[in-house]
Amino acid sequence: MIPIVKTIEEVRKYVKAWRREGLSVGLVPTMGFLHEGHRSLIERAAKENDRVVVSDFVNPTQFGPNEDFESYPRDIEKDAALCSDAGAAVIFNPEAEEMYDNALTKVSVDKITKVLCGKTRPIHFDGVCTVVSKLFNIVTPDRAYFGQKDAQQLCVVRKMVKDLNFDIEIVSCPIIREADGLAKSSRNTYLNDEERKAALCLSRSLSIGRELIENGEHSAEAVKAAIRAEIEKEPLAKIDYVEIVSFDTLESVESISKPVLAAIAVYIGKTRLIDNFITE
Ligand code: PAF
Question: For residue 137, is pLDDT > 90?
Fold first, then answer.
């Protein structure tokens, strides 16, 4: 069975030993409760690196006071089986005390963290950037793998890596969906049967938006209106945002010409789900 390492010292020992042998290292940062989306990241990392570390840590600093830190699903034994099967070498599964130990330092990316999810989750990206920087310094990977499902996170991490000169390649991996289109997420487990059906309005509305763009619609407002209209047909859904932005600056666009990110966040009952697409 794959080793589940609890301390920073121990994970560093593994990495140092691999480095002595001249091996490359990939990192897949996760909060655990792994699904097929995570598996695709781990498998890709295992293809592109000699050794893969999966971090499995529900990071308290990226949850707001009224969010789901306590109830966030956890299952380290199941995670270990998936990691081992997907080709990872080690799971890093620290306690919060091990990671934070009275830390007073934060990493904060400005501007692009204040839009989209940053509006309803004001401390979220400081938590993400801080923990991801720490994981980068602990594991010192050659490459780190992030899912396009969290497109804003990907954009923020890329900017942080550039601004702070981390010598790490950030690899973006496509969204993995259920057969009926729902984007895989650990939070899907919160949905009851009725909500699970209702949640399909996210992928359905995005398909409508994508098709409009593919058929030549240039007005971002028209595409957003069509996406909103589809979500609003669903009584259990409440829109947090529907945005079309430039993928690097995350600034709203009026006219769709170059590649854009169409991103949505929707409450289905109490569960907040996100989804997106990026145009060619
Ligand atoms: O995407 C996630 O699961 C988390 O935000 C991450 C990158 C593991 C940081 O805690």
Answer: yes
| DSSP assignment of 180-212 | TSPBP-GGGGG--HHHHHHTHHHHHHHHHHHHH
Q: Do 41 and 148 share a domain, yes or no?
A: yes
For residues 34 and 79, the answer to whether their CB atoms sit within 8 Å is yes
What pLDDT is recorded for position 167? 98
Residue 178 is assigned to a structural domain of this protein = no
Query: Could you tell me whether strands 260-268 and 271-278 are parallel, antiparallel, or unpaired per DSSP bridges?
Result: antiparallel
Q: Are 210 and 260 contained in the same domain? A: yes
136 plus 199 within the same structural domain = no
Range of the domain at 46: 4-173
Distance (angstroms) between ligand 1 centre and the Cα of 129 equals 9
Choose one of 173, 195, 211: the last residue of a domain. 173
Q: Report which ligand 1 atom has the smallest distance to the Cα of 157.
A: 7
159 in the same domain as 195: no
State the total domains in the chain. Answer: 2
What's the rounded Cα separation, in Å, for the pair 18 and 11?
Answer: 11
pLDDT in tens, 240-267: 999 999 998 999 999 998 899 999 999 9
Q: Which residues are catalytic?
A: 38
Ligand 1 contacts CB of residue 56 (under 6 A):
no
Residue nearest atom 7 of ligand 1, based on CA coordinates? 29
> Is the full-model pTM beyond 0.85?
yes
At 28-81, the pLDDT tens digits run 999 999 999 999 999 999 999 999 999 999 999 999 999 999 999 999 999 999
Distance from residue 57's CA to the centre of ligand 1 (Å): 8
Rounded distance from Cα 128 to ligand 1 centre (Å): 6
